[in-house]
Amino acid sequence: LDYIQELGVTALWLSPIYDSPNDDNGYDIRDYKKIMPEFGTMEDFDDLLEKAHAKGIRIIMDLVVNHTSDEHAWFQDALSNPNSPYRDFYFFRQAQGGLPNNWTSFFSGFAWNAIVSEAFPKDTYALHLFSKKQMDLNWDNPRVREEIANMVSWWFKKGVDGFRMDVINLISKDPELPDGNQTIGNLMGVRGIEHYFYGPNLHKYLHELHEHAFAPYDALSIGETPGIGLHMAELLTEHGRGELDMLFNFDHLEAPGHKRMEEYVYDPKHLCEYLITWQTELSNNCWMSLFYNNHDNPRMISKMEPDTRYISAIAKLLATIQFTLKGTPFIYQGDELGLSNIAFESMDQITDVEAKGYWEENAGELGKEKAWQNILGGTREHARVLLPWNETRAPEHAGITQEVRPDVTEAYKFLIALRKENPTLIYGAFKVIYFKNGKFVFSRKRGDDEWILDCNITHDEKKAYTPHAAFELVYSTEDADGATLFPYEARIWHTNTKAGR
Ligand code: ISL
């Protein structure tokens, strides 16, 4: 907490710390009201919460309620008890001579487990959009919604400040569970997604959860919403709707026409186009999240530039852009250290269920070398090596070291403080001044207070932008002030509050 406070960070999002068999890094919850032993006890959590609040740091937990672990008491009771009240908590379906539908899982293979249990007739299957141990909850059952709302309230009563809500846009499925369209499935990477990524009751269920659990505590709700674009995001986060406060959209994490599991060089021009679109088109009654990395993606730095000489420069460029745009910035652990991707050498070092599923499904067809290259390009493992200061390592990660970059940490501290002291950087109007030839120059303005960001998004030198005399240079990621920007250099100009107007 001291480290976080020294950085100037004011809220901490914990990926799932609940009791879990850890089939999917804790996103397979076995008990929503118990802490995973690896992370201590509930008393330890209460202590963390108290100490965080004492330092002015809010605690945001991860709400994973599209599915539970197959070891959750509800699912286990449904499996063993023919009269279980939890049979309708999940999607159990009969199907003769095939599967209930053609949906595939986000983690490869079909989205159905065959159920072998005295409590069910033969040819019974259960739906899992993710791993085989993550069983989808039936949100059309009001008792499921009631249990979830009560559990969320229980955490709010303890003092938790909000939730990041895992794949929360997937909770309302088309009740017919119809087959998915093959073309859409090929495009999206999962067949059937059109029948649940923005389902018929999504708004109703989100509003109900918001009113029953979040509103009474004025708690923060951040939706993780794969597949939701800008206009749907407005419908889900517009402040008057009482559904989500903001959401994570992922359209900027891959360049157009590319998939995450693919080795390619990401053109930061796409990132800037994305940011310009969202900064200029998102309704003023909505609010966006600003992030480049999370636990599901390789590090953006490594996507953008294979030449490791530029890692620090790119880290500081990305941070400068992130902390001078409208929205809420999210730092993924290690961003502030300038961490980049890991040079994994073999599948033996990969613990992630998604990458393992990809390998099983593709190594034959693509060949081991190509499949491995794609995994190196897109595996979540890059973000899941313990931070450098941890002595312990997962056995598969033994011997892996990561270089930390103190100049990047200093840049984060400076930028976080600059943003806090200058509300124009949070709320000011955004305007593009110049965006071509590898330059991205934009302004933030609020009344007479104006900031100009001059960014070189390439590894070539570029002509620096020179504002008129009323501006002073307050920051350069390369401590430079000449007529040329260094590779990936960013500069911040501010109306000179001292100079006469
Ligand atoms: O990779 C993605 C976005 O960059 C998505 O496809 C991601 O896999 C999807 O948004 C689901 O992610 C969330 O739910 C999963 C879990 O494995 C991820 O860690 C979590 O972030 C299932 O709970």
Please give the structural blueprint.
Elements: H1 2-7, E1 11-13, E2 18-19, E3 31-35, H2 42-54, E4 58-63, E5 67-69, H3 73-80, E6 92-94, E7 112-115, E8 124-127, E9 134-136, H4 142-158, E10 162-165, H5 182-188, H6 202-214, E11 220-224, H7 230-237, E12 246-248, H8 268-281, E13 289-290, H9 300-304, H10 311-322, E14 328-329, H11 353-366, H12 368-378, H13 406-421, H14 424-427, E15 429-436, E16 439-446, E17 449-456, E18 462-463, E19 471-476, E20 484-485, E21 490-495
Parallel strand pairs: 1-4, 4-10, 10-11, 11-12, 13-14
Antiparallel strand pairs: 2-3, 5-9, 6-8, 7-8, 15-16, 16-17, 17-21, 18-20, 19-21
Helix pairs in contact: 4-6, 10-13, 11-12
Q: What report would you give on this structure?
A:
This protein is of the alpha/beta class. 30% of the residues lie in helices and 18% in strands. Strand 7 (112-115) and strand 8 form a beta hairpin. Helix 4 runs parallel beside helix 6, helix 10 packs parallel to helix 13 and helix 11 packs antiparallel against helix 12. Bound molecules: 6-O-alpha-D-glucopyranosyl-D-fructose (ISL). 6-O-alpha-D-glucopyranosyl-D-fructose binds at residues 24, 27, 64, 106, 130, 166-167, 224, 226, 250, 253, 260, 295-297. The site of 6-O-alpha-D-glucopyranosyl-D-fructose has 15 residues, from loops.
Main sheet: strand order: 1-4-10-11-12
The residue-averaged pLDDT reads 97
Number of helices: 14
**How would a textbook summarize the main sheet?**
5 strands, parallel
Cα-atom radius of gyration = 24 Å
> Unreliable segments (pLDDT under 50, ≥5 consecutive)?
none
Percent of sequence in beta strands? 15-25%
Separation of termini? 43 Å
Present as ligands are: 6-O-alpha-D-glucopyranosyl-D-fructose
Give the overall shape, derived from the CA principal axes.
globular
Sheet/helix structural class = alpha/beta
Helix content: 25-40%
- Give the strand tally: 21
